[in-house]
Amino acid sequence: MSIASNVIDENTKLGNARTILREKLAAWNIDYNNSDTLFELLKRWRYTDNQLSILIFYPSENECIARAEVTAGAVIKDEDNQPIEDMPVKVTCGGQSYNILTDTNGRAEVTLTVGEAGSTFSGTVTAGNQSESWTYENIKLFGMKEDDPDDSMFDIIKYPVDIELTLEPYEYDTGYNDSGLLVSKQTNSASAVFLIPKGTLAITDSGIHFKCGMVQKKTSNQGWGDAICLLNSKELVHTRDTKILELGAYAAKKGVKYSTSDHVIRDISVTTGQLTLDSKWYTFEFYYDNGYLEATIKDGSNTVFSYTGDVSESITLDSYYPAFMIYDAGGSMIFNNILIEPWTHEEE
Predict the structure, then answer these.
(1) Residue (of 227, 169, 157) closest to 193 by Cα position
(2) What DSSP designation does 348 have?
(3) Reported pTM
């Protein structure tokens, strides 16, 4: 037999093998591509093992804000919970298909970019014979709505960067009558931490409504502050860098403060009387748009602090990020029931 005949014969056998594998994969409802080589099809055959652990992940609705980068994919492990490398996973989104392989940790993922505000963002992750899809309509410019937050939902900004910080779920108990995210910062008089909803880009052309439940927890008798705030920049070279507008609780006080590039904290409207520590949920809420501010702190239906006015002479925010903030010797807080959304001040 000639060399050419041998090549034709081998190609025919390979073609037949590919056809048989495709038929068997189809019988198992296992995804494959028509362009897959024999070796790629053999990798997919591993999915016929019913003892595999397949964990598909995709972005939550809170993550899917305009122009944010999010991830989708799968984690594959064997019956002994050991990661499996080189397992094929497919992610489809925006008319594109991404064929990816698991790494040494058994994880395959692709980074996707959410569309513009008002658009629909949808996709599907397929691993073997399992698939999960998502569709989020009317993508927001920014925002977050979450009753029970966890640490995966936030980007953490710290100054100094080595300050110790822990985030953990705080379960319901009779002391607080609710659950939430407990944030604890190392007690240090020259430090600050900020929790920004993950994926949030700098907001430049919208007002904001920011609301949450919060418990103040003090671990030091030194000066301290727990607040919700608008942070001008994620690039920190100082605890008060560069512009911050905040609604917070402080030692013996509560109210609205600000700081600018000189790093000095100043009062806009602050009243005496410390919030009850370690036992009460308060509702912190503010509306801000182009210098106009409405801010309240409530104990149930009872308003314990209120301010409405124009703060543009005190601070001008050309861009900002919504954030939870603990600074100076402030030790910790618990928060939940978060609502962050665009808002426009209507002139009367």
Answers:
(1) 157
(2) -
(3) 0.76
Cα first-last separation, the chain: 93
Please state the length of the chain: 348
Q: 294 pairs with which residues across the strands?
A: 287, 308
Element (H, E) at 250: strand 244-250
- Taking CA atoms, 290 is separated from 141, 142, 196, 205, 241, in Å, by 17, 17, 20, 9, 20
Closest-CA residue to 138 (of 154, 115, 159): 115
pLDDT tens-digit readout, 261-277: 898 999 999 999 988 88
Query: Each residue of 79-116: pLDDT tens digit?
Result: 889 999 999 999 999 999 999 999 999 999 999 999 99
Which residue, among 179, 192, 300, has the nearest Cα to 246 in the 3D structure? Answer: 192
Phi, psi of 43 (to 5 degrees): -60, -40
Q: Give the pLDDT confidence score for residue 7 in this predicted structure.
A: 44
Mean pLDDT for all residues in the chain: 87
DSSP designation for 151: G
Domains, the chain: 1-47 (no CATH), 49-140 (2.60.40.10), 144-343 (2.60.120.560)
